[in-house]
Write a structure and sequence with these properties.
Layout: E1 2-10, H1 11-25, E2 33-44, H2 47-55, E3 68-71, H3 75-87, E4 95-98, H4 101-108
Parallel strand pairs: 1-2, 2-3, 3-4
Helix pairs in contact: 2-3
């Protein structure tokens, strides 16, 4: 599963992404997957919102059993993702934060990814 954000990422858009993951993508058991922020050009996300989000119940079921990855190259975004990881680590022990999509695919053990849009 891949969720990619491009352009500006705001608190509002991040909240929508979190809700979409909960409501649309993971009705039952979710496959391993990642949240790709490598194409985000501006992080208009507050650190307070990231901390609040990290304290919520994980968006994906089986957070302690399935590998979840956030890929983000931007230094500011990487710092925010690491903050999310650290604050929510007890609820999301299988979460990893990496710099590139390549790193994410390596962590997932995927050599030839094929993604299809969800309906």
């Amino acid at each position: 599963m891949l969720l990619r954000v491009e352009g500006q990422l705001s608190d509002e858009l991040l909240a929508e992404c979190y809700k979409a993951i909960r409501d649309l993508l993971c009705q039952d058991r979710c496959p391993p997957g990642f949240f790709d922020l490598s194409a985000v050009t501006q992080f208009a996300v507050s650190s307070e919102f990231v901390r609040q989000l990290a304290k919520r119940e994980p968006a994906m079921p089986d957070a302690s059993q399935r590998l979840r990855i956030i890929a983000v190259e931007n230094t500011t975004g990487f710092g925010l993702a690491r903050m999310f990881h650290i604050v929510g680590e007890n609820a999301r022990p299988m979460l990893q934060v990496v710099r590139t999509m390549h790193d994410a695919l390596v962590a997932l053990g995927v050599q030839s990814p094929h993604f299809e849009p969800l309906e």
